[in-house]
Amino acid sequence: MRVACPIRSVCAGAAGTATMTLAYAAERRWRQRRTPLDYDDSLVPGQIVASVMHLPHVTARDERDLGLLLRWSYGSAFGIWHGALHRRLSEPWASAMFGATLMSATLSLFPLLGHTPAPWRWPADVMATSVGTHVAYVTAVAIADDGIRRRSG
Fold this sequence. Notes:
The chain is mainly α. The chain is 75% helix and 0% strand. The chain is built from six helices and no strands. Helix 2 crosses helix 3 (60-77). The N and C termini lie close together (7 Å).
């Protein structure tokens, strides 16, 4: 059964999002930490959604839920960009460009929309977590996309 490219790419994006979520959980457990590990892992994504949508009276729980909704929808849909790149570039170039786009968005949109510090002011552990979890996401998207492509013919 042949899987259409957009569907395959969204599924790969969902696999990447799941991997990123597991990477956060593993790091949190390893570091024995309950507090956010980086800005993606905090309430900032939900605050961005609430701000962009002009939602009044948003609680911390609402911000958490909005952040999870953003992570899963954006993370899944962003897989389409990897699929488009992979149709034009071979690996590892498609994944390198995909990762560069993703990190560029992260490092620019959080300060612009989330009012976080500029990336060069992020603590080293926050930057390391951000890069590491995004590498996990990109790797999982590439592996899932390739696996689905091979199985579907």
